[in-house]
# Entry
Amino acid sequence: MTPARPPTRPFLGALGFAAGVGAAAGAALAAPGGLRRAVAGAGIGAVALATTETVSRHRQRPGELPPLFQRIAVSAALVAPLGWAAERCGAGPRTIATATGGLGGLLGVRPQKIAFGPALGLAAGALLGRTRMSGAGVAAATMLVYRVSSALLFRDAQVRLLAERVPAAELPFVVPRAARSTYVGTSYLKDLAEQLGARYDPDVADIGIVPSLDELAGPDFDPAAADPLVREFYEHTTRFRLDIDPQWRTWIRPGYLLYRSVVARPLGQANVPMNQRDIERGVRSRIDTITQAGRGGDPETIRCWIRSYADTDDPIYVGIYTTYRDADRGYVSVGFPVPQGSFTATLLPRARPGGGLILTSSSDLPHPGHYLAVIEPDGGADPAGSELTVLAVPGFGERLDVHVRDGQLRAEHAFTLFGRPFLVLHYRMHRKPAAGAE
# Structure
């Protein structure tokens, strides 16, 4: 039996990252004393954070995140240089503390933290403003207090380490398809086909996001009872044109605007319409495919449903759609490629009265949910040979309800954070005119 490979590279990478963050924080905190003190501070910070990283890694058990004390220390160290830079730009302690608390709240995602962060920052700024603490010190102290208070007040885990360096074949509910570059975009599948040496077919004329609705059969869903329009949509998705109407909750808008500007647009992924101007741009929906030899020698088709803005083809969603069965149930897993990883939504099918189909992540079963994976390829074309480190994201909820109302095919795609709704995408699906029709 081959012994397990020691995680040397991940440990050294984490150690180097911690030392770098500690050096930057130490230099920022010591900068008011001059260059020599800043250099000394950088050395002390690097050694200190590298030491705590080593201790935390030795205490970390398989399947666990690094200990909380180290995550808090890294958070405080990361914002110290930002506080130093803000002070250099003329910001005072109150502004720095409030902004730091707001940043912590936004990164905490859940509504309570989004509200709690700025409030705590404002209070910290009022107290620290009476001292002679530097901007770096104010930022680090505020983040430290925020993280400790947040850990005491909000005990539900935001993420959970599910697997570390596990073969992809052992995790059927994760789609192991990563982006090779820092931009995903609508050409993702074409680039993947070149990597795999497989046949690429863009904008396939008549294909669905699933090969057959029968693959989703299970105790909660009988495909034979589905409305014919619902079945046709899933098995022949490209026959339909989509109209989308996003309904955002007010509390999430500031965070989403920041995410959209900093993450979604530069990444070319998960760039959901925000307002009426976005809606008026229209949505283009298409499915690209790759065909290659599967593991058993039979042809395997990879389906990528691409939704983009009709005027510029800027991506909205780029998702790899797969189905699989576990025991007596079928599941839908949608993988959204990101650089060196993927975000997967695995959804359980349930029947809806009237012949509709609900796909939901809410279930006591082990597979449904959302997963963020870092993918370490084995150098081959088969993703099953890759190793995955996977975080479960239990606070994120999703429900897609496809049904027919008054002869119109509709869908409501609802999202929640820790049980609180933040977005519903209302779809109307219209059959495209037949080829050659006026």
